[in-house]
Design brief:
TIM Barrel; 11 helices; binds 3-methyl-2-oxobutanoic acid
Length: 289
């Protein structure tokens, strides 16, 4: 596995390497929230490839190599089958393609829940093989001991509460959480447990807005919302959702582009020109001197 953390643009189709910027650190992200106030909201997007990372990097504080890559890249039915090998390969690509944002890599299902020791082995592998700055794991109170174990051993951890997609088989689907008082209280106590265990930030996914606001006020570290509230300390979206890559648009996604239509239209024009033998044209062919 590669431990070269910078993309060699001489051999790639990408633009030349930009003047290296100082990469944001996890303590700097954590310090954005001071005494309950975040003046400068944290911008996070998912990235799975080096080129995607290059394009997003300058605009983001954090790039998340999410295990959503299972569905988005691999066409899997959920994030449950995602492996540590997949996360390591995509994490390394994203680190190679970025210079500015801190890179966080998701710990996939089954690689951290059994014990803090199991989590340490998986997280250490991700840090060593990818060069990422931190890992993210799902779950609240049940994961607090693990978060403390990793943090004390030099591995920054981002928590993830509310709708936790790896638990889809227990939750029974991807509906918003926190509609009952009991569920709402559980989400708040989960986030507090992670915060107190040393998480540097907590993702709040798919919860009714007042709960997201309650959590944001309750925890000392920044909250990162997705399907949560604009009052969270930062926001994250799956980049392909935000770009309009898929027909299905969850309520919490805002489409900033219609990339699926752009790709289909380009493929249709290409197919037409191949069938009409108008591609390749003179500009795309090599002629004898
Ligand atoms: O896997 C992922 O992309 C995530 C974000 C949606 C927060 O966990």
């Amino acid at each position: 596995m590669s431990t070269t953390f910078q993309l060699d643009t001489a051999t790639s189709r990408a633009h030349p390497t930009p003047a290296p910027m100082k990469r944001l650190t996890i303590p700097a992200i954590r310090q954005r929230k001071q005494d309950g106030v975040t003046k400068d909201p944290i911008v996070m997007l998912t990235a799975y490839t080096a080129r995607q990372a290059q394009l997003l990097d300058a605009h983001c504080d954090l790039l998340l190599v999410g295990d959503s890559l299972g569905q988005v890249i691999y066409g899997l039915p959920s994030s449950v089958p995602v492996t540590l090998d997949m996360m390591a390969a995509h994490g390394a690509a994203v680190v190679r393609g970025s210079y500015h944002a801190a890179v966080v890599v998701d710990m996939p299902f089954g690689t951290y829940e059994a014990s803090p020791e199991q989590a340490f082995a998986s997280a250490a592998r991700l840090l060593k093989e990818t060069g990422c700055a931190a890992v993210k794991l799902e779950g609240g109170e049940a994961m607090a001991e693990t978060v403390a174990f990793l943090t004390r051993r030099g591995i920054p951890v981002m928590g993830h509460v509310g709708l936790t997609p790896q638990a889809v088989n227990v939750l029974g689907g991807y509906n918003a959480r926190g509609r009952s008082d009991a569920e709402a209280q559980k989400i708040v106590s989960d986030a507090l447990a992670l915060d107190q265990a040393g998480a540097f930030a907590v993702v709040i996914e798919g919860v009714v807005e007042p709960i997201a606001i309650d959590v944001t006020k309750a925890i000392a570290c920044p909250s990162i919302g997705i399907g949560a509230s604009a009052q969270c300390d930062g926001q994250v979206l799956v980049t392909e959702d935000m770009l309009g890559m898929f027909e299905r648009v969850p309520r919490f996604v805002k489409r900033y582009e219609a990339i699926a239509e752009t790709i289909s239209a380009a493929a249709a024009r290409y197919a037409e020109e191949v069938r009409a033998r108008t591609f390749p044209g003179v500009e795309q062919t090599y002629q004898p001197k």
